Amino acid sequence: MLPERSRLVALDGMRALAALVVVFTHATGAIAKSSWDALALYRSPLAPLLNATGAVHLFYVLSGYCLTASALRGSDARDVAQFYLRRIARIHGPYVAAALLAWLASAWLYPAPVPGVSRWMREHLTVRLPVGELLADLRFPGLVGGLLPQGWTLEVEMIFSLLIPFMVWVASRSHWAVLAVGSLGVLWIQNLPLETLRYAIDFAAGIAIFLERDRLSAVFARLPAILAGGLALAGFLLLSAPAWMLLETRNLRAATLLFASGATLLVAGAVHLASLRRFLAWRPVAFLGRVSYSIYLLHFTVLALSTPLLREGVGLAGGAAFVAWVALVSCALAPLSYRAVELPCIRLGNAACRWVARRTGGAVRVARIES
């Protein structure tokens, strides 16, 4: 059985790579290009680096895995209350800080769109959010009127953070297959009233991988190295397939299943495949994983402020340099945000958990802090 610490470091590394894919996708999307150039780019070998939707599904499977461990630390009302306090502090606090920063940047620093900026990016650069709307958007994670386009994923994350204790309770008292079947059933509902629920399959998969971690460890240990590596490669190909096939616009259910299947195999590989785990736990990758939430939150503001670099049309080399610039600046700022915003929010959540434990006489369930 693998030490849990080894698993979590590798999963941090995978989260870093997923965050960078989102950065690459948004930065590439900000560059003006013809429809033919865009089609060629997203059907090229570079497509996996621009697969933001696949990266988001990967985030959700990772969350399902990690939150299951947290939810199983205790199941009574006091433990669930502490779980919610930790998650709200972890997700919402940094979100509020990023939303305020984006709002201030849009009010004072956003540049006028230049010729090399895409129509999609032009729309975001013209957003000027009234104070009242900003305050309303701070109540729950979201798009902040278009200032944080990635914010919709945080809304999904928060909603499922509220549902995870119930999902884990169901899976641990019956079987994870109950969650899987229920998630598939939700996916097949016509005119789904809450679009967020289609991501239940990702969180259910993460829960299943955690609950079956010992059995999966034994399976991976018995597999020949080439076959175990083949499973991880299959996960990568499944995660990339919908983007290559442009499947999301033609069959969203099929795309969701492929994304979820690929993400599940990759997370299982990160946990149980030694070679992949070593790479993801490599210090530079693991460090980026630790600050990946800040990378994710800050990158669009960095992107918006960098668009004057697109004053003239750019070719492939210029576009790659622009994308690299946005990624490097976001990664450079992320450790500062981690220390100034994320760590205080985590400590605030832990302090709230200690207060609840003192008032209710329960055990303290705090989050581990890495400075």
Question: How would you sum up this structure in a few lines?
Answer:
With 371 residues, this protein is an all-alpha fold.
Task: Explain what you see.
This protein is 74% helix and 0% strand. It has 16 helices and no strands. It has one domain (4-360). It is an all-alpha fold.
Features:
mainly alpha; globular; 371 residues; 74% helix; 16 helices
Explain the layout of strands and helices.
Layout: H1 4-29, H2 35-42, H3 52-71, H4 77-108, H5 119-125, H6 131-137, H7 151-173, H8 176-187, H9 200-211, H10 213-222, H11 225-245, H12 252-272, H13 274-280, H14 283-290, H15 292-306, H16 316-360
Helix pairs in contact: 1-3, 1-12, 1-13, 1-14, 1-15, 1-16, 3-7, 3-9, 3-12, 4-7, 4-15, 4-16, 7-8, 7-9, 8-9, 9-12, 11-12, 12-13, 15-16
Number of domains: 1
Shape: globular
Rg measurement, Å: 21 Å
Strand content: under 5%
> Which H/E pattern describes the elements?
HHHHHHHHHHHHHHHH
By DSSP (H or I, 4+ residues per run), the number of helices equals 16
Distance between the termini: 27 Å
How would a crystallographer describe the biggest sheet? none
Low-confidence stretches: none
Overall SS class: mainly alpha
In percent, how helical is the residue content?
over 70%
- Strand element count: 0
Calculate the mean pLDDT score and round it.
91
